[in-house]
C-alpha cells in the first residue's frame, strides 16, 4: 500500500474512532461531570449535527486553498479539539467537553473528503474505488478496533485518557502526512477556480443528487435495524452480553471485508455492482428479521449485513467523484459524508417508531429493508440512465 494512502487511512481511523467512541464512555462522562445520561448523549448529537451542517460549508469556504496545507490544517484543528476534550476531565467542565467535540467536528467532513479525493487521484488507472476503499476502511477499523480500544482505555484509565490516545494518533498522522503527502500541483479541493455558485451547481447535478439520496436511504435502512441490534440479540435471539460484544465485532469484521470487496467490485463495474450489493443489504435485513429467534443463523445474518453494508461505501463515494469530476468532487464528498450522518439519525428515529408501534423488535430490520429498497430503486434508475451513454460511446456512428 502506498505510504500516502496508508497515512490517510490511519487519519480516517482516528476520525472514526473519535466520532464513535463517545458511546462507550458515556456513562463515565455523565458520572464524572455530574450531568444526566441524556445530556451526555448530546455529545453524540452535537458532533453529528456539526458534521451535517458545517462540514460542507467548511469545505466550500476552504476550497481555494492548496490541498496539503489544508489537510494538515484541518487535521491540526481536529487534534486541538481532542486536546480540549481531554482537558475537560480534570477541569470538570461539561462546556469544555462540548467545545472540544465541536472543534473536532468542524474538521471531520473536510479531512475525510480530501483523503478520498486524493486517494483516487494517486491511484493507478482503474483502481480508484479500491484506493477509496482503503480510506473508508479506516472507518471500518475504527468500529472494529478503535472503539473497543478507546472504551477499554476509558474504563481503566479514565475517559480523559481516551481523548489523549486519539490526540496521540492524530499527531502521528499529522507527522506522517506532512512527510509523505504530495505537495506538488494538484486539482483544487472545490471547483477549480470557478465561482462559489458554480461549485454549488455540482450538487444540483441529477447523478450527484441520486448518489446522495442512495447514501441516505442505505444508511438510514441499515441503522433502522442496527440501532436496535443489541436488544434484538438479547431479547429475541437470547444471546448474553459477552456474546453480543463478539457479535458486534463479527459485524465489524464483515464490514472490513465488505469494504475491500466492494472497492474491487466498483473498479470492475461501478453501478451494476452497487445495485447487486444494495440488493444484498436488503436481503440481509430481511434475513435478520426472519431468523432472529435462531441464534447462529442470526449471527450469520449479522455478518452478511456488515459485509454488504460496508461494501456499498466505495461504490457510493466513487459515483460521487465521477459524477462531480468537472466541478467540485471534494465538496460533493463532504455533502455525502453529511448524508451518511443524516441516514444514521433518520434510521434511529425510524427504528424507534417501528419498535414502539407494537410490532416488536423484528419490525426494525423489516422497515430498514424497505428503506434500503428505495435506494436500490434509485440505483436501478441510475443504471438505466447511464446505459444510453455507454451504447452511444460504443457505436462507431454515434447512433444505436
TrEMBL record:
PROSITE patterns on file: MFS
Family annotation (Pfam families): MFS_1 (PF07690)
Subcellular location field: Cell membrane
Domain Major facilitator superfamily (MFS) profile residue range list: 4-387
Segments traversing the membrane: 33-58, 70-96, 135-153, 159-178, 208-230, 242-262, 274-294, 300-321, 333-355, 361-381
Bilayer topology annotation: Multi-pass membrane protein
Keywords for the protein's UniProt record, in alphabetical order: Cell membrane, Membrane, Transmembrane, Transmembrane helix
Primary site of residence: membrane
Entry protein name: MFS transporter
Native organism: Streptomyces hiroshimensis
Chain's gene name: araJ
Amino acid at each position: 500500500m502506498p505510504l500516502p494512502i496508508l497515512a490517510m487511512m490511519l487519519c480516517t481511523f482516528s476520525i472514526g474512532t473519535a466520532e464513535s467512541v463517545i458511546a462507550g464512555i458515556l456513562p463515565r462522562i455523565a458520572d464524572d461531570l455530574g450531568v444526566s445520561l441524556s445530556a451526555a448523549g448530546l455529545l453524540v448529537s452535537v458532533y453529528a449535527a456539526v458534521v451535517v451542517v458545517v462540514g460542507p460549508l467548511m469545505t466550500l469556504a476552504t476550497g481555494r486553498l492548496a490541498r496539503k496545507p489544508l489537510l494538515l490544517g484541518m487535521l491540526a484543528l481536529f487534534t486541538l479539539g481532542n486536546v480540549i476534550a481531554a482537558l475537560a476531565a480534570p477541569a470538570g467542565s461539561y462546556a469544555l467537553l462540548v467545545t472540544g467535540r465541536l472543534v473536532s467536528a468542524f474538521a471531520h467532513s473536510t479531512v475525510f473528503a480530501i483523503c478520498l479525493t486524493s486517494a483516487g487521484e494517486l491511484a493507478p488507472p482503474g483502481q480508484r474505488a479500491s484506493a477509496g476503499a482503503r480510506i473508508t476502511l479506516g472507518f471500518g477499523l475504527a468500529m472494529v478496533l478503535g472503539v473497543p480500544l478507546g472504551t477499554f482505555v476509558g474504563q481503566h484509565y479514565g475517559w480523559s485518557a481516551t481523548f489523549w490516545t486519539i490526540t496521540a494518533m492524530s499527531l502521528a498522522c499529522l507527522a506522517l502526512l506532512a512527510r509523505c503527502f504530495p505537495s506538488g500541483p494538484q486539482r483544487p479541493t472545490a471547483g477549480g477556480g470557478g465561482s462559489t455558485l458554480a461549485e454549488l451547481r455540482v450538487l444540483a447535478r441529477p447523478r450527484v443528487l441520486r448518489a446522495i439520496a442512495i447514501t441516505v436511504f442505505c444508511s438510514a435502512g441499515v441503522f433502522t435495524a442496527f440501532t436496535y441490534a443489541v436488544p434484538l440479540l438479547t431479547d429475541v435471539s437470547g444471546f448474553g452480553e459477552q456474546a453480543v460484544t463478539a457479535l458486534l465485532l463479527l459485524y465489524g469484521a464483515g464490514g472490513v471485508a465488505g469494504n475491500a470487496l466492494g472497492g474491487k467490485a466498483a473498479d470492475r463495474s461501478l453501478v451494476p455492482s452497487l445495485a447487486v450489493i444494495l440488493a444484498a443489504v436488503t436481503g440481509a435485513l430481511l434475513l435478520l428479521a426472519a431468523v432472529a429467534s435462531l441464534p447462529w443463523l442470526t449471527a450469520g445474518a449479522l455478518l452478511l449485513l456488515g459485509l454488504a453494508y460496508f461494501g456499498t461505501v466505495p461504490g457510493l463515494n466513487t459515483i460521487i467523484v465521477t459524477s462531480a469530476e468537472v466541478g467540485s468532487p471534494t465538496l460533493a464528498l463532504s455533502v455525502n459524508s453529511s448524508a451518511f450522518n443524516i441516514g444514521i439519525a433518520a434510521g434511529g428515529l425510524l427504528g424507534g417508531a417501528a419498535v414502539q408501534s407494537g410490532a416488536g423488535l423484528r419490525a426494525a430490520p423489516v422497515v430498514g429493508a424497505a428503506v434500503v429498497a428505495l435506494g436500490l430503486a434509485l440505483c436501478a434508475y441510475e443504471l438505466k440512465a447511464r446505459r444510453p451513454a455507454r451504447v452511444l460511446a460504443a457505436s462507431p456512428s454515434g447512433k444505436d
